Amino acid sequence: MAGPKLQAPKGTFDVLPPEGERRRALARACEEIFAAYGYAYAETPVFEDTEVFARGVGESTDIVQKEMFTFEDKAGRSLTLRPEGTAGICRSYVENGMHKLPQPVKLWYWGPFFRHETPQAGRYRQFNQVGIEALGSDDPSLDAEVILILAELLERAGAQGIRLRLASLGSIDTRRAYLDELRDFLRGREAELSEEVRGRLDTNPLRAFDADHEGTRVVVADAPKLMESLSDEDAEHFEHVRRMLDAAGIAYEIDPSLVRGLDYYTRTVFEFTSDALGAQSGVGGGGRYDGLVEELGGPATPGVGWAAGIERILLAAGEAGEGQSPPQVYVTPGGFALARELRSRGIRVELEQAGRSRKGQLKHADRLGVGWVVLVEEDGLQLKEMANGEQRAVADADEIERALR
Question: For residue 401, what is the enclosing H or E element?
């Protein structure tokens, strides 16, 4: 007797055609765009020591407190399925001595990530991200460059209704002084804040800006803004970034309430949203993290980067995203070797392999959208053009290839 029907775990999903080809097309676009800017592909493990994220992402963040999939291995070590990519890249930078390489080191990655979130459209517990990181330089041109790259990728993917929000969190010292000021302000109206925000006043009062709680939102509307406390050096850095984005024709809006959800950000932060995604509009974002490598045991190393959700990008693109191209040629039974020869010449070929009748073969070729059918007959080959129904004898793969040009 058959067992019960099995399903994928909640918050996960299968990638099937034609969606799979849309993903591969996006991956190819990533590779082309990133290579043009000098970014090389890198991979880190799907799970890391939990400390990488506790120290790197921040123990006060929602990711560490609520969303990580953490477990003990057989030796009792605490491991975590990676919830984001930057901390792992920085750990790898330190562990592999990449500070000895010519700086900045420019890397990109693609793969699965995991967060224990409530599943909804475009947000899953296992999801996929693409990201880039540039480590080893604090030049504002890198901030502008990574923003420009993500804008170019979203345009190439066909994402609709894209907007860019931009802000600066200042240097580590500037942020530390501001946090004391913000903490004092929020404590003065603590009774109006949500219980969650009150519980984080000591560790990370910036989280108040992300709260959905109505009372908290009223309070933070009157709160001092970090961008009003920037040092001259921080303000100059941000101004350089803005000038370069203006010169590149990248539209943006300054949003002083943009703080991002991770503790490691400094100076430039940004987020791309899509009007096509409704309330959960984030597509991708990032910023500068000049203290993260040092926090993970490495030398003082500035860095900047971003991550974007693959599912979010494709959802924002709707039907505009590139899909799989149909076969060019359909070959009837008896043409196995011919199909192989045509494929070796870069021609996309579908071979009849389901035992259909000749009438069924032609109907199937029409459904596939192929331009040509090669009919393998006892006395030779016939090439049929589907658009007009014209058919003629051909001798071999050379003649077929010439006809397709």
Answer: helix 397-404
**Residue 376 three-state SS:** strand
Exposed, middle or buried: residue 390 (CB in 10 Å: 0-12, 13-18, 19+)? exposed
Q: What is the pLDDT of residue 281?
A: 86
Whole-number Å distance between alpha carbons of 81 and 48 = 7
Half-sphere exposure of 53 (CA within 13 A, CB side): 26
User: 140-182: per-residue pLDDT in tens?
Assistant: 999 999 999 999 999 999 999 999 999 999 988 888 888 888 8
Query: In sequence order, what DSSP letters do the residues of 270-312 get, joined into one string?
Result: EEEEEGGGTTS-EEEEEEE-TTHHHHTTS----EEEEEEEHHH
Mean of per-residue pLDDT scores for the chain = 90
Q: pLDDT of 199-257, one tens digit each?
A: 878 877 877 887 778 888 888 888 888 888 899 999 999 999 999 999 999 999 999 88
Q: How far apart are CA 230 and CA 184, in angstroms?
A: 18
Q: Spell out the residues 6+ positions from residue 355 whose beta carbon is closer than 8 angstroms to its own.
A: none
Model confidence at 62: pLDDT above 80: no
Segment 56-74 shows an average pLDDT of 82
Element (H, E) at 374: strand 372-377
DSSP 45-74: -SEEEHHHHHHHT-TTSHIIIII-EEEE-T
CA–CA distance, 128 with 123 (Å, rounded to integer): 10
* Those residues with Cβ within 8 angstroms of residue 224's Cβ, 6 or more apart along the chain or in another chain: 178, 181, 182, 185
User: Do the Cβ atoms of 252 and 196 come closer than 8 Å?
Assistant: no
CA nearest to 149, candidates 164, 138, 168, 170: 164
Of 31-35, 63-67, 344-348, the range with the lowest mean pLDDT is 63-67
The residue type of 200 is R
Using alpha carbons, select from 107, 56, 105, 108 the residue that is nearest to residue 82: 56
